[in-house]
């Protein structure tokens, strides 16, 4: 340890405090073992100012006094000011990487802190359901009567709250001049008062008791209240929910923080749900489960989730959902709700870890740049180091001098990155569909992270160059005999460049694979025609009125076909039930999707009929069309054998004859398999018009459709969506991830380009004499270009050999989430290699070509 200290500090200092050091070590050796004494003594040496350990002596004071620290930074600033290109490259590269890290920090922070601000988040659970028949099906909902039975009979819950999430509702304000319609995609939440005892959403005005005592009362967040009523007092004013239920504002809630999954902002008394959806609100409804009917529990202290699940097991046996379906109730922790994809979690932990890895890669790339440039530049400073050592400078002083220079660059980069990250938050919210705000940076935790980032980057980027430059021999340095082998050498620098190439190639491969998969998912043949199809939602009206409106649409020029239906072929929605084959047959455990359509559905969406005929017009269920997958699951190999067979569903309440078989189409995203499906007529379920437009007809048909709508339904909100846009929403998380990969890959490549540009400028300067001699001896431009080309070509190929298996492994795992996926073909890797080569040529081309055309007379004369 004394030898280490002699190496690290000036010898005079060790002479002053060697006695103290030995005394401290002996004292530690008596009170603990040798290993603990060594470690403790090492820490004591590093913390020399620790009171009562070592008294500060004069040499130590001289080393750490203010004047010396000031001198370090003054010299460092002068060196950086003189080398503006070097400083600009490093500050720019580090600032870009740190900006990305700060934005990634904000994204990760807001996701991992979701709903952790409630009073007892570790005791809050949601009851979820798993249903098993021929396959397993998970839902975040519970049967409607279950929460009430738990409240009456069980003791594990301190508070139990039943809620219903009504998505994409229409809010109408009749108090303003004319009707004002608001389509709320986040919907409204029907809640019991206990909800606000479990979750910490403070009131500004009103009382939670109103939810129980006042029928049709509603609580609004401050933001929603201002949206509907402006700055006036909203208490006592009314809104209309889906043009059916009049709600009276009874309370105003504080605006919710961005890190919560409860973003509706409209909370309606649960009693109103009995008017909104009476069949689902029935306390005897055990025959089905809606994923929007949810139950939250605040466990009593001393109860575990396992204890509660044991109590819930009896309800699944006593109140079965159906004869062939086995249900299991379990408790999902609040911290799991945001991430669990099984229960429609809105975020992916794997995606967040990918972002964290990308942030690390970007920082690592920028640090590699710094090390490469600093070591390449070290030879230019060898005489400076030699002169300092001759004048009495010691290695530790030179080491900290170079660390100080690195610290200046890193601090400048962090300051610049703070400005950039603040400015980019609105764009990040738009790109990633999140709710970040600058308050995520206003806390002690963030400033601690910033300090660690500053210290970590300074040491990571500055340690090796400082160590190398501090070790120059003064005699060799002053004679100009220091070589690249003593300044990190080309081998170490090559390794750093290869590491940089590996990171960029992995990112490029990920980018190419993700783009290819999303293109495959959105542009492949889905089994139906999705181009120029407009979906228009209609509220409950008579079938005759809907048919009359349908005929009006068909008269519009540019409208090819119109179908009344429950939903589009791919919508993520559909009634799922067990079916039986044969009249009066028991239902099997085959869960099947039923879509309610009219006779124009096949033609509107271009579905292919393989056998039989289309449905005849009907108001009720009489005839059925089935897909190939359903027949395979029923064990029917020949579609002709299915013709005329009777299918029963919905507990025998639905019965129809198979009259046709249609070709399979994708009813959901490429993440899932094609479902067993049947199509049938039922006028009560028609909630949408599917309008097929002539491709290239422009917007004129849409204007005329809206005019027809307003003429016939002046009090109904007109809303439409293109089917291909709806399909794109299935891949929102992948699209956001792709955007992130695109942005961060571009930045990583740009940082790499800056590093290569700076490095080649130093390499060209070192090889100026060699290039001049080669040209004098007859070497042409191509020979000069080859000197650099073969060097970087080898590095690119070596990096490719490392990056290919890493990229293949990562992308193979990412593609596992898709049931229908692209192959990792060889051309994807060739594109990655070619991209890497092109980036390198662009980065180094200017300096290399300029060097190749230098006049050897000028370069050799200078030498």
Mean pLDDT across residues: 78
Structural class: alpha+beta
Please tell me how large the radius of gyration is.
Answer: 35 Å
Number of helices: 31
- Shape descriptor: globular
Tally of structural domains: 4
For the terminal residues, how far apart are their CA atoms? 47 Å
Task: Tell me about this structure.
By secondary structure, the protein is α+β, with helices and mostly antiparallel strands. It has 31 helices and 24 strands. It has four domains: 2-63, no CATH class; 121-343, no CATH class; 349-521 and 731-862, no CATH class; 539-715, no CATH class. The strands form three sheets. Strands 1, 2, 3, 4, 5, 6, 7, 8, 9, 10, 11, 12 and 13 form a 13-stranded mixed sheet that branches. Strands 16-17-22-19-21-20 form a six-stranded mixed beta barrel. The protein has a four-stranded antiparallel sheet with strand order 15-23-14-24. β9 and β10 (245-253) form a beta hairpin. α2 packs antiparallel against α3. The longest helix has 38 residues, at 395-432.
